[in-house]
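The records we work with from here on pair a chain with its fold. Each token is a code from a learned vocabulary of local backbone shapes. A record is reproduced here so that you can trace the correspondence yourselves:

_____
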Amino acid sequence: MTETTVVGLARQAVELTLLISMPMLLTGLIIGLIVSIFQAVTQIQEMTLTFVPKIVAVFLALLLSFPWMMHKLLAFTQQLILGIPGYIK
């Protein structure tokens, strides 16, 4: 296993991690922005108003994107397992 192979696998793993976390992160960001704008307009500064909608939205995004996430993870794992003979050389 050469250094380039290890770096390539690490790069793929980091890219997959970022790709899989994007739906939840973007959902939290968008809901946070909406709630912040609502708080600025109404001048309501309640902490639970920011926390609860984000948690619910991130959980829903996780539920909706879970099949896609599992497909990506299984494909990556299958690629790693099938590539083991090539990595040993």
